[in-house]
Amino acid sequence: xxxxxxxxxxxxxxxxxxxxxxxxxxxxxxxxxxxxxxxxxxxxxxxxxxxxxxxxxxxxxxxxxxxxxxxxxxxxxxxxxxxxxxxxxxxxxxxxxxxxxxxxxxxxxxxxxxxxxxxxxxxxxxxxxxxxxxxxxxxxxxxxxxxxxxxxxxxxxxxxxxxxxxxxxxxxxxxxxxxxxxxxxxxxxxxxxxxxxxxxxxxxxxxxxxxxxxxxxxxxxxxxxxxxxxxxxxxxxxxxxxxxxxxxxxxxxxxxxxxxxxxxxxxxxxxxxxxxxxxxxxxxxxxxxxxxxxxxxxxxxxxxxxxxxxxxxxxxxxxxxxxxxxxxxxxxxxxxxxxx
Length: 340
Ligand SMILES: Cc1cc2nc3c(=O)[nH]c(=O)nc-3n(C[C@H](O)[C@H](O)[C@H](O)COP(=O)(O)OP(=O)(O)OC[C@H]3O[C@@H](n4cnc5c(N)ncnc54)[C@H](O)[C@@H]3O)c2cc1C
Fold this sequence. Notes:
alpha+beta, 7 helices, 3 domains, EC 1.3.1.98, Uridine Diphospho-n-acetylenolpyruvylglucosamine Reductase, domain 3, binds flavin-adenine dinucleotide, Uridine Diphospho-n-acetylenolpyruvylglucosamine Reductase, domain 1, four-stranded mixed sheet, five-stranded antiparallel sheet, oxidoreductase, peptidoglycan synthesis, 24% helix, Uridine Diphospho-n-acetylenolpyruvylglucosamine Reductase, domain 2
């Protein structure tokens, strides 16, 4: 029987270091413990918060329910052919440790996603992505427990409905499943993705055919450490807003008024804007309001240097959204999920 801890302080369990008390907290290592935790929540009629590394949530108050920290461990090769290896990884494994493990074992594909904080089980929820790669390219399938029935279900890559920082688990199946393991299809031979300009620039001294996945990983780590604040030093959740996607017509009008606007290609007739650029232009970079702040080097990152409340962080986020909307007519959407 896993230990249910009452009045549990979550401050060290969310990378924004927001103080928040959970009515109950439980850490589960196996599917059986997970089922017991879900049964406890059902019997006691408690709302649930599934927790990995707490690097993509904002706790706006105390959590009146059960927080279930997923700590299952394990990696297993379940299949292979000449080209690929299928690696099944437990949801509680640390994401970056998985990337290191894959490289140490000559399994390729995850290198661009080095140093993203959090757990393997949370990674499909928002289809984590960085430096030109998203995990939708690498997930073969995943296993998940239905929260209501306790039954285990397999989701194929297609049925996860991955999109930009999005999946079915943030949409029609929100709060309905606990991901228990993810099976990745990794390559036996390197197949590098150097499309991201900053990444190619970081490796400019090496001929493309000589670049190794290990070098890509090291370059990604280097760029991230220069650009992004370490949550252990300055509490944050990485990008606070998604890059907004607008239609070509709206973009043309914005571009006419803002010739230096930063944009990326998106689907047909759509353009993705750099939310960080919009926030910077609206004058927010480096500003602090009510204990929460906008990072000095990267306007897309909100920080919580004084370990203030989630309310303080959200109040700043609202001010930013409002001013970006007033200046550009673009509504920013938050990336992390808010609880309760
Ligand atoms: C410094 C920094 C940099 C970052 N950079 C990136 C980046 O480059 N790209 C990117 O995509 N993200 C980035 N992030 C965001 C974050 O790392 C990812 O979203 C990560 O996948 C969150 O993992 P986690 O375990 O911390 O999730 P948590 O914050 O614990 O949870 C996030 C959401 O997933 C749910 N969840 C967690 N585990 C499970 C599970 N097993 N089953 C079902 N639901 C679950 C939670 O309930 C919650 O809704 C960054 C964050 C930080 C702090």
